């Protein structure tokens, strides 16, 4: 286990591989651990980091740090402390919100973002997320498969307030147009059967600007990286390999990718 001290508290993280940096940010259910298959896939060509946000996994539990602004500060301090410059980010749920907000505040530090299960509107978030314990959320969202076992085990480690406080001021964050305000390549991925984040509104994807692209996973729920790991990791690898000046819309043209990965 790797850990650093930030703001006098422990932040847990893990790292695999060598190369350009990628950081994985978990969502409201689980911790860094469910990213292991994706980290392993990325570590072939990249240096993959995954950390536990405040209140999750093995990082410190301190309710004063659970608001989005503090989670953003954690990411900034983490990158600075480890001397990580420009970074690609793969964020899920809460991690997707944090990654996009971080990119807006620090545009020169983010190369690209793969945002999984990003809510375009607070109304798209199932109220059950605001009301349930981490254990109940894990039972609701995770199947009893080997791939989901890590997230199921880690979920109870979360402080319930870390979930609630991250949602409390979401309206103030103005997330509805957040992807449109960025200029870096951004890939929006969503499980069509996600019971937490509704896909309503993603019909606007046809009108997305060149730096944005939306890809639905028809056979996935809230955790596409666990439901269909081969497909998810292949898409991630293809996105990360795109030249920086190339639009993620080019991924839609990879018909051989669509045929090959099911």
List the helices and strands and how they pair.
Layout: E1 2-6, E2 9-16, E3 20-25, H1 36-42, E4 46-51, H2 68-81, E5 87-92, H3 94-105, E6 110-116, H4 128-131, H5 134-141, H6 149-154, H7 160-168, H8 178-181, E7 186-191, E8 212-217, H9 224-227, H10 229-241, H11 255-260
Parallel strand pairs: 3-4, 3-5, 5-6, 6-7, 7-8
Antiparallel strand pairs: 1-2, 2-4
User: How much of the sequence is in beta strands?
Assistant: 15-25%
Tell me what the CATH architecture is: 3-Layer(aba) Sandwich
| Number of separate helices | 11
Structural class label: alpha/beta
The CATH topology turns out to be: Rossmann fold
N-to-C SSE string, H for helix and E for strand = EEEHEHEHEHHHHHEEHHH
Give the full name of the CATH homologous superfamily: Alpha/Beta hydrolase fold, catalytic domain
Task: Give an account of the 3D structure.
The chain has 262 residues and is of the alpha/beta class. The protein has a single domain, classed as Rossmann fold. The longest helix is centred in the N-terminal third of the chain and has 14 residues. The mean pLDDT is 89. The chain has an eight-stranded mixed beta sheet with strand order 1-2-4-3-5-6-7-8, sandwiched between helices. Helix 1 runs parallel beside helix 10 and helix 2 packs across helix 3. Helices cover 33% and strands 19% of the residues. Helix 1 links the parallel strand 3 and strand 4. It contains eleven helices and eight strands.
């Amino acid at each position: 286990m790797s850990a650093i001290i930030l703001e006098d508290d422990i932040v847990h993280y893990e790292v695999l591989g060598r190369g350009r940096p990628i950081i994985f940010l978990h969502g409201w259910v689980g911790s860094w651990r469910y990213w292991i298959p994706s980290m392993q896939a990325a570590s072939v060509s990249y240096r993959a980091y995954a950390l536990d946000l405040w209140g999750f996994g093995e990082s410190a539990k301190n309710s004063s740090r659970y608001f989005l602004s503090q989670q953003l500060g954690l990411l900034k301090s983490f990158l600075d402390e480890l001397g990580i410059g420009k970074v690609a980010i793969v964020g899920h749920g809460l991690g997707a919100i944090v990654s996009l907000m971080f990119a807006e505040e620090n545009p020169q530090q983010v190369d690209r973002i793969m945002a999984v299960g990003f809510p375009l509107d607070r109304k798209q978030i199932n109220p059950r997320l605001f009301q349930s314990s981490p254990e109940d959320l894990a039972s609701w969202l995770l199947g009893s498969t080997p791939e989901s076992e890590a997230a199921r085990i880690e979920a109870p480690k979360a402080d319930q307030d870390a979930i609630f406080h991250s949602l409390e001021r979401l309206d103030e964050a103005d997330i509805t147009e957040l992807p449109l305000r960025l200029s870096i390549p951004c890939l929006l991925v969503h499980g069509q059967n996600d019971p937490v984040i509704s896909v309503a509104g993603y019909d606007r994807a046809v009108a997305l600007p060149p730096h944005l692209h939306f890809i639905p996973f028809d056979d996935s729920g809230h955790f596409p990286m666990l439901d269909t790991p081969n497909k998810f990791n292949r898409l991630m690898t293809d996105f990360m390999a795109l030249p920086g000046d190339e639009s993620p819309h080019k991924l839609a043209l990879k018909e051989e990718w669509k045929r090959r990965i099911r």
